[in-house]
Protein 1
Amino acid sequence: MSASTDKTPSAAPEHDGDAVKPSNFLRAIIERDLEQGFQPARHFAGSPGDAAHHAAGPLDPARIRTRFPPEPNGYLHIGHAKSICLNFGLARDYGGICHLRFDDTNPEKEEQEYVDAIKEMVAWLGWSWNTPDAGTGSDTVSHLFYASNYFDFMYRAAEYLVTQDLAYVDEQTAEEMRVNRGDFRTPGTNSPFRSRSPQENLTRLREMRDGKHPDGSMVLRAKIDMASPNINMRDPTLYRVRRATHHNTGDQWCIYPMYTFAHPIEDALECITHSFCTLEFEDQRPFYDWLVEHLAAGGLLARPLPHQYEFGRLNLSYVVTSKRKLRQLVEEKHVSGWDDPRMPTLVGMRRRGYTPESIRAMVESTGASKTNSWIEYSVLDGYLRADLEGKAARAMAVVDPVKLKLQNYAEVFGSLEHREACSAPAHPHLPELGQRAFSLGPELWIEREDFMETPPKGYHRLYPGNKVRLKYGYVIECVGAEKNEQGEVTAVLAKLVPDTKSGTPGADAVKVKGVITWVGVHDGIPAELRLYDRLFTEAQPDSGDRNFLDFINPQSKRVVQGFVEPSLAGAQPDQKFQFERHGYFVADRKDHQSHAPVFNKITGLKDSFGK
Ligand code: ATP
Ligand code: MG
């Protein structure tokens, strides 16, 4: 049975967490395979290698082997999280092992910087490519591999195909090759170089390898069928001449394998059982099978052979997830870098404050299906709130501050110097997190929007003559405001109502309809607050022929100076809080310092998307 016969509906995003088990047709495939004892005598020599290498090794203790195979040419994004969680998650669930393999066969675009960042992010998401050593039980067996370490084998495989008359060197120009490939309606035309003898081709291939021919002058192609209805089977290119320094192999090679040739070989050398990839590779599967089958028949690759299965990509609304487009955003400085908190890269999302738990929960809720899915950003935010609600400490912060002056402060407390201690639980349901302490003084910071001189109907906050409660403090009555020459409010004036402190018997004596948050002028900490919104104004900014750059949201970042309560003095970079009434914030992992705090807004308390 091939994966393409599986019909599973597109995974519906679920808002209520794990109430419904997401459908995942890949599980069905693995369970069927395991039930049928799909690979009874599968040997694994403990490291990647050819048929002889594995034949000499023991039976594979892993029931299945999967891999996450990123190309180290950029930073991972939310779409990759799907592939990571599927591959590592399925291996974990079925007694298998997942390899982290850098698909670094393309010399031009790959860098160590990306290798390091990818490793960091896979680990951040909570996965490990190390497994316990059978002998010691400690986490010491690494399953981290580099495809470039297989270049020797790949070249050997290429020579083998040539000797079997299954590959040839083609000297047509790129344009001739394109024209002769035909299209969906027209079969291709055989290259005039297709009928060369294996011996001639071998000589040519060796010359290519030895640097005797300029870049682009010739390629090695598989000899399959130029009339195949599947264009990928019309003699696909296997090797090209390219003088470029590779981050791992340096200048050792001037020919490099194509991805479609390299990838199946990588899987087979690592004894991957289930090679999961995204749907766009479906048409490559016949070549994948052709290649590993021929190389196994020739005794080069170990049997049983890997199989490819395709699943639908994960797309998130209001972002783009293509490395090329993300790179453009960075290089053209639309964002501050790969880790800009608005970027859907994992480094960006981490900096924004998304937790690995929330990303995993969102990805898992989408299961796996045979169609590409679009997930609303608000679904991810739902998982984030569900995660942070139960663990983020609370705090008060004022985002758009205006001063509130308590005119009768000295009368009530005997002196302007008096500080009236107030407290609140760090978390309403986690008493073990303790209490937050802050205090009331004669001047407080409140939100500018909490005062209106002439309020509309239904406004219950401060306006002359109205009473509200200062959260965790006293009831106050508004008496007016001070203004500057332009008529702007520079301070709100109010009077404390004595004996109404929260938590005291008098607290309920005066009924109010509004409660406002505040921070003391004397003990509030000035903080930079970075208020983020979605990066694009359109849900699918890169759909159709549109230029995604036309839909960048000019209001996606707003930086304001606010004040936060004194309990945040010890906030550590990456620490997350719920700022009461405002939403979830995180101390910026790059810029936050105790003497100059910086908090990023992660998301609001409720889903306000599109409202
Ligand atoms: P991009 O198209 O963004 O450049 P890529 O597919 O070229 O991504 P790779 O490094 O080749 O990036 O991807 C590693 C793995 O992640 C591949 O198996 C790929 O299929 C998978 N992957 C990439 N994007 C998504 C996505 N949106 N949803 C699910 N899997 C994805
Ligand atoms: Mg790719």
Protein 2
Amino acid sequence: MKVLKFGGTSVGSPERMKKLLDIINPAERQIVVLSAVSGTTNNLVEIGQAYLAGEKVKASALIANLKTKYEKFIQELFAKPEYLDAGKEVIDYHFGLLSNLANEEFTTIEDKIILAQGELLSTTLYYVYLQEIGVPSVLLPALDFMKTDEDGEPVIDYMAEHIAPLLDQYPDNKLFITQGYICRNSFGEIDNLRRGGSDYTASLIGAAIRSEEVQIWTDIDGMHNNDPRIVKGTKPISHLSFDEAAELAYFGAKILHPQSVFPAQKYKIPVRLLNTMEPSAPGTLISASSDRSEIKSIAAKDNITAIKIHSSRMLLAYGFLRRVFEVFERYKTPIDMITTSEVAVSVTIDDTTFLGDITRELNVFGSVEIDVNQTIVCVVGDFSSETHGYAARVLEAVKHIPLRMISYGGSSYNISILVKTADKVETLRSLHSRLF
Ligand code: ASP
Ligand code: MG
């Protein structure tokens, strides 16, 4: 059984929603995961912020605005009056719920209920549309089986246990529709898998049902081998290993939610990235195997801050790095790149919320230097020890660019360099023309 996920733009207009049936084959047993209509989750975030700030008038204006969009949406989605009425009921229910929150004490619990309405709306409207055109389908409530634990980590075994009986209830049905992004947390409250989380839902369901394949349908033809906005002549990568995809999804390639690689990898479920606008294009296949000894892709991540701690105490000492890392841990700030010498260590972060506190605490160890506006450029491929010459080719391509850090050997799949953001475009172009 396959899992197909369609993103916000793929359901972004009534026309696009109707076109999903060009891709979905209703005769094949499958689970279809839908995102919210594009823009909706952003609007819901604003509504929640207005409520949190106690600005009820603003919240109600935002709700009215969004409701108008949906009223227009269903006018175009449905043809028959009785289905239009059913669509209206769906909208009234969800927008009524949003408005009624004005009468309640507003906490993050209510905020998450708001965020869940986008996917509930898109899936229910699509389900009613399928009824109108006579395509049988089943609406599976994601809140009945998508689950996270105390640490916010999805619990695949729970999902497997709860989704199987739901599917078994409908042995003769083929098409199952469900919500991306939303779940219940360990308290049973409505929660979500964070922004962009519908990909993650698809991969988690894929793992839970041991799916034969997960398909992520977006509006580009797969993961490209460089940033198409910056470099001319980029190409979709036809095949990536899970490790390569994880590196790329994290570094800039916005097409796939980075965490969604791991459930698929654990249960060896192939993931295909495909283009709704060009359904016959091959896209990108992510699977356990890979084409060895090849440079696959170049990606970049901006807004990086480099921190160098210089300390003679580091010389021949043990425990020094642990103390440095503990500072970042205390401020829940992830480190991306690390390089060390005998008397200094450099790390990069992208979340600078606590940079002031971190710097103050690091100053106890030695002198601290901060460089802002840095970019990590990451070259992904198979750099296992049997292959050789790739690092030299990468460095040769950027020999005219000042490098702040180089990281190689952390995994066999990437070489990362840190450059000034001002040098990013030249770095990407030069690597592209020399490596591909
Ligand atoms: N609707 C959610 C978001 O906009 C989840 C998703 O689209 O993947 O973040
Ligand atoms: Mg997305």
Protein 3
Amino acid sequence: MQLENFRISELNKKYLAEHQRRFEFIASTVKDVNGVLQKLVDFQIAIPSWALGTGSTRFGRFPGGGEPRSLEEKITDIGLLHKLNNSSGAISLHIPWDIPSNADNIRALAAQNGLRFDAMNSNTFQDQPKQKLSYKFGSMQHVDKAVRKQAVEHNIEVIKYGVELGSNSLTVWLSDGSSFPGQLNFRKAFQNTLESLQLVYQALPEDWKVFIEYKAFEPNFYSTTVSDWGQSYLYAEKLGPKAYTLVDLGHHLPNANIEQIVSLLLMEERLGGFHFNDSKYSDDDLTVGSINPYQLFLIFKELVEGMDARRMNHASDLGWMIDASHNVKDPLEDLLQSVEAIMVAYAQALLVDYRSLEEAQVDNDVVRAQEILQTAFRADVRPLVAEARLKGGGALEPLKVFRELKVRENLIKERGLKAVAIGL
Ligand code: LRH
Ligand code: MN
């Protein structure tokens, strides 16, 4: 389904007056509002190729129809999101779910849709049809050297696809671990995994990065071989300067202080990027900011403060990716809400008065410190985010326009109710 810019500006007309009024108010309270707007325009979030269809749990899947049936249709769906919010200018592929049939064609189609390829994701957590050796008892940790070799070769193949598409990073999430005490020798599992990752590391092109994604549990329920930020950091330290940790917000044990983890990994120059989502219990992969928007704001406060302390480029120096699964919402509406939540949290963090916060911290003025943070968190920054979209030719109200244009209905007409996307 094609969406022309003129169509969006037409649909923006009825929201313009209200937007102007609200924008002028917030803009009048912001120091360097043009600087803030430029940062918002530059900030692009990668959409996961595996989250454009309906998600599922072991208890069921309730597809909504019109889902993308190929990588090409996944790219045009993300292109449509990007047309609407001008903040979804990248796609993150998962191999083998999204093997490009013809890399040049896929690259050209992505460029037509204003998209670049962010981190490539390998998959050694499932056995593929023609796969020789099973990953039932792990991949890079496996006691059998041949299984580890198979996993290493798969990751090197993923890098190859990424090079053809213009990506420059690889995300390795290993489901490896154990489900019962005694099943695994933790030291050997770590050393096997490190040895395997070193072989993948050696295959990285000069300008590439590898992101080590940690996760506390699932699908293993006694130990996970890369289970927390400390272990991911240890692997990155032992691998070399191109290795970083990847923070998936849903991969922590309950009540973990994720913003503190982020501030320390950033300080240690080992923070590579994020998989944004939200959760109430475990790896729920819910819409970003739908459960704990204050935590998301506190994470972006640490990011803005930490990146400015190291004079980093907010838009390009870290990997900004969504990793969510949509069991009850329209996948594209869910992604529009997630991108909006991330842009809002970033805008709020840009409004924090960091100089006054530092003064309050030096004075141990705890009350004032909280007031400074919550003044930014409670500011309605949505007109700033909307103005940034407008500057980029996007919609003032992406979700309303998505529904006004009956996008899902049109996709169902085009692809059918039974069309089901490959992915989780
Ligand atoms: C694991 C994970 C990982 C992906 C997968 C789709 O839970 O977060 O990032 O490979 O989800
Ligand atoms: Mn993830």
Protein 4
Amino acid sequence: MDKTKALELVKQQLPEKRYIHTLGVVQSAKELAHRYGVDEDKAELAAIYHDYAKYRPLDEMEQIIKDDGLPADLLTANTELWHAPVGAVLVRREAGVEDEEILSAIRYHTSGRAQMTELEKVIYLADYIEPGRSFPGVDEVRELAARSLDEAVMKAIANTIAFLMSKQQTIYPDTFHAYNDFAMHKGGHRNE
Ligand code: DGI
Ligand code: FE
Ligand code: FE
């Protein structure tokens, strides 16, 4: 898939602000991929498409969760999570991306999961630390990202869980599983 065409497709799906965020994620993902020996072209494409479904209507996303065999527990989870797995379905269907590594990086970019691949970690972290982000704790994660991919992702996940808990929001099980996996192994990974 050609990068310019991918960016054009994504631009049509997103408001200006989210498109600028996407360009930031692309920049951070390429840097992280380079630093940690992850395929830079895959990181770039996954970053371009990671928020593809972010502005789809909830009823359309709900239908895709039901029709495309996505985990049924998503239906009762925070709807903020939906755009990630639904995005993976739509990027395959509408953009013709078949690469399972890229699709799983899109699928898990919001929740994380146990045994994340290196590409999944890069996209999760790039989404968290891209230059446009300015929430509390982001600079600490940026510093960690310079020396350890696993420690940076673990801190980002811990911050997200703490943030959600401070607002008395639910935590999706995959997010806890991701955290526990890093805490137990300090760096379990799948495939590589
Ligand atoms: O799509 P973005 O805004 O770029 O970032 P994202 O895909 O990480 O979405 C973040 C939102 O998802 C944020 O508002 C927190 C929310 N969220 C809701 N429930 C969960 C969750 N994030 C995680 N990791 N786990 C949850 O259980
Ligand atoms: Fe997202
Ligand atoms: Fe994002």
